[in-house]
Specification:
43% of the residues lie in helices and 25% in strands. It is α+β, with helices and mostly antiparallel strands. The radius of gyration is 30 Å and the shape is rod-shaped.
Length: 112
C-alpha cells in the first residue's frame, strides 16, 4: 500500500519549468497576432488619412465629414483650417482640416 502513495506523489509532482515558458510563448504569440490583425492596420489607415488632409491644397475638390462638397480656395495654417467655396452661389465656408473626409481631385503621377 505504501507504493501506491509513492506513485501518486510522483505523478502529482510538478513538471520542469518548460511548461511555464510554453504558456508564456503562447500568450506572446497571441498578443503579437492581435497587434498585426487589429492595431497595425488601424494605425496605417490613420496615418494615410492624416497625409491626405495635410496634402490638400488650393484648388482641390473635397468632401467634408458632414457631406459638404466644395473647392478649397484658401488654406490657413495658423488656425489649421481651410476655406471652401460651395455651389453655384459661391458660398464660402471655413472648416477645420480634420473635417476633410476625402479629397476628390484626381492627380496625375507626374504632378506628384
Amino acid at each position: 500500500m505504501n507504493t501506491f502513495f509513492t506513485l501518486d506523489a510522483a505523478a502529482a509532482a510538478p513538471a520542469n519549468g518548460n511548461d511555464m515558458w510554453i504558456m508564456l510563448a503562447v500568450y506572446a504569440v497571441f498578443i503579437i497576432a492581435l497587434y498585426f490583425i487589429f492595431f497595425r492596420p488601424q494605425n496605417k489607415k490613420k496615418k494615410k488619412e492624416e497625409e491626405m488632409r495635410k496634402g490638400a491644397t488650393v484648388g482641390d475638390e473635397i468632401t467634408t465629414i458632414g457631406g459638404i462638397c466644395g473647392r478649397i480656395i484658401a488654406v490657413k495654417d495658423e488656425t489649421d483650417s481651410i476655406v471652401i467655396e460651395t455651389g453655384s452661389d459661391r458660398a464660402r465656408i471655413r472648416v477645420k482640416r480634420w473635417a476633410i473626409s476625402s479629397v476628390d481631385t484626381v492627380k496625375d503621377d507626374a504632378e506628384a
